[in-house]
């Protein structure tokens, strides 16, 4: 009997007239290597290429897309269908205030690309030039992304926005680390292990590995423990604790978006795009539950934050962004060595797929379906080519080289831009279309 394979598609994808849409099979077929099977995309529009389905719509409309997976004997192994919802852009008469919430991926640039494509002219792809259509609000205003604000913090999960959790530390040092060292492990002089998360000029951010509760060292030396490419000890002059959740009322210690808006001079929030769930794979909860159980736990944490948003802004629209796949070509090994489950690529595929399914089910619940929407990113993100990489010898005796990824979770600019493209399509469909 042929082994079944899950094809996991959302209810719909939003498309925009004139914008190239590509649906990558790796991101929607749950298989160690989907290309050993026959993959067929069936739709009255678009083209079925070997790695993806592509469609450049010329007019609004809706089209059913079915993806089928067969074995060599033409036995059907799995299938699913989705709706391609094509809209035409139209400049709105009012501005939509959007709050983007997430981890390091949200701080990494997708927000700016979505904003650029809506509000600016020119560029590639050319922006719509709807300069007053959207405003991205928040307390973080990255200098390299002019005109936007957000809430994105490296290593954060849902709990970090709900509670003040003892966690990361910034260390002031001469930083010469690269992406290959991201997520490597370092030991302080008291024996506690810290995981490198964020790289900035003169500063490094470390998270507590396996959620330990050891005191933060004020200054000293961090020595290499595992997985770094540059193993030189890190001498740091001082350390500090990053700020806690921006959503907690300083007086009550509870999530309070009305107070948050007052403190940050935000008059209201119309929509929130939330991109969380990548961090947590090494948490105790993930280790002690099945993938499906843990995915439900993650979704339930998300509901708590969304309930607070809905309480304080009853007319808000919530967009729950799904998780793209991590590196499929050695990025995990570059960052994590051989530590399980972080370097089990197929486990990572299962992990992301289960969370995506839990997020989609959450958004379809009666309590949430009228104001929550799931955005599938895994199908719109080219996980095979979006991660930093380098050419390395195919073996120690050969001069022939092959491409190998150097980061397992943080993509190159093109990856952030693809995430921004998916959000752009949803913003247009939701707030800037006919």
Descriptive account of the structure:
- This protein is α/β, with parallel strands linked by helices and 434 residues long.
- The protein folds into 3 domains: 82 residues, Immunoglobulin-like (Sandwich), CATH 2.60.40.10; 253 residues, 3-Layer(aba) Sandwich (Rossmann fold); 72 residues, no CATH class.
- 21% of the residues lie in helices and 27% in strands.
- The strands form 6 sheets. Strands 10, 11, 12, 19, 20 and 21 form a 6-stranded parallel β-sheet that branches. Strands 13-16-15-14-17-18 form a 6-stranded antiparallel beta barrel. Strands 2-9-8-5 form a 4-stranded mixed β-sheet.
- Helix 5 packs across helix 7.
Topology:
Elements: E1 6-7, E2 12-16, E3 21-24, E4 29-30, E5 38-42, E6 47-48, E7 52-55, E8 61-70, E9 76-87, E10 96-102, H1 110-119, E11 134-137, E12 151-152, H2 158-162, E13 169-173, E14 185-187, E15 193-200, E16 203-208, E17 220-226, E18 234-240, H3 257-263, E19 271-275, H4 284-287, H5 291-312, E20 317-321, H6 331-336, H7 345-364, E21 372-375, E22 389-393, E23 401-405, H8 413-431
Parallel strand pairs: 2-9, 10-11, 10-12, 10-19, 19-20, 20-21
Antiparallel strand pairs: 1-4, 3-7, 5-8, 6-7, 8-9, 13-16, 13-18, 14-15, 14-17, 15-16, 17-18, 22-23
Helix pairs in contact: 1-8, 5-7
Q: What's the architecture of the largest domain, going by CATH?
A: 3-Layer(aba) Sandwich
CATH class of the largest domain: Alpha Beta
Total individual domains: 3
% residues in beta strands: 25-35%
Would you give the CATH topology of the largest domain? Rossmann fold
